[in-house]
Amino acid sequence: xxxxxxxxxxxxxxxxxxxxxxxxxxxxxxxxxxxxxxxxxxxxxxxxxxxxxxxxxxxxxxxxxxxxxxxxxxxxxxxxxxxxxxxxxxxxxxxxxxxxxxxxxxxxxxxxxxxxxxxxxxxxxxxxxxxxxxxxxxxxxxxxxxxxxxxxxxxxxxxxxxxxxxxxxxxxxxxxxxxxxxxxxxxxxxxxxxxxxxxxxxxxxxxxxxxxxxxxxxxxxxxxxxxxxxxxxxxxxxxxxxxxxxxxxxxxxxxxxxxxxxxxxxxxxxxxxxxxxxxxxxxxxxxxxxxxxxxxxxxxxxxxxxxxxxxxxxxxxxxxxxxxxxxxxxxxxxxxxxxxxxxxxxxxxxxxxxxxxxxxxxxxxxxxxxxxxxxxxxxxxxxxxxxxxxxxxxxxxxxxxxxxxxxxxxxxxxxxxxxxxxxxxxxxxxxxxxxxxxxxxxxxxxxxxxxxxxxxxxxxxxxxxxxxxxxxxxxxxxxxx
Length: 481
Description:
Blueprint: H1 2-27, H2 37-59, H3 73-89, H4 93-100, H5 111-119, H6 131-154, H7 158-185, H8 189-193, H9 211-236, H10 243-254, H11 258-274, H12 278-296, H13 303-338, H14 343-358, H15 369-376, H16 391-399, H17 401-424, H18 430-445, H19 455-470
């Protein structure tokens, strides 16, 4: 009897942990995407509470621990190397030399010897131009790691995976609806509750400062909603018993709970398209193509399943075409106003390349772009520039080529694991497919934006990626050593 009680208690405790993660995901977009120091700290506190609670429950045997980390060993090593090097960048090498006699001052950034000469004495010596920004960037990256680990552990159970995915879609729907309503009635909820001012624009930004960041967040929500919709519809319709049965079951499915999924997709896509983000919409279109491919590949069991997959692929292609048709006019309008060439982004890219050339191995400092950009700027971009609008080049300039490539390799490897899961799984391949397509979205948009540096977007993507990786292998493989 006692054993039965334990078995019934475990799911409830882990469901509470899942609820905690969903609360954090729901809170994150509200305070300007958590892109404020106090909001980021609150986000870290929330994720930390969930992780500590889970650790305590796992140590006492009241909750299951993480799935085997050996399955993600290489991505773990990559991210460990990258963040380890970022930690080294923020160490005072002058103090290290005085304490240990180890002289690594040859790696110090040139600004520190210049500062020492200007001050007429010894000064601190760091690899990073701004070690405080580097420490902050390490903290921000740890938020994504925490979100990934929680989702990776809890979503190994398919029921919790379903609740996590549906919960995220619900969060996206609520924020999309509030953004649309606020835009229609001219109400800025964030401005009413917080003192930060935002640029007035005719584009929807929702809870985010930048419409481009809303576009990325909504793209993730839209892919999750579409994946849920097509998979539920495929399972609800009888595909191999003639056209009459197919039509009847399809009508029953579309007039039932699946109608809520259609409404959810409509609201999210409306907010995405009205953001008028050129890069965001293009990234979403690439992500939808990736979702189609991921759901189409792999093992097929029956003729009916093959027909269902073809029908769902055709449905997603239709959604893709409609989204492209609806978005073409506003996007062309922005192109006609601003032109095809974005000179500011091109200038930032060239400056980033110069920063990479100046320190290809050690980097300029993780998260320190705002500080080192003036050293390599050509003067064509006015004002205070805090991002490169290209996460790939900025990461390589920040960390140097070895650590920068390792940092970017981690999500790429995990996305590859998700695609491999689509190939080998028949049941529940929806989860790795959504994670893979989400990776394509953020990867494409990262070439022209910095949405992944917005905490709300980063932890949402990390949660979807953890969910996808957790569902990338069959339950029977857990016993394989």
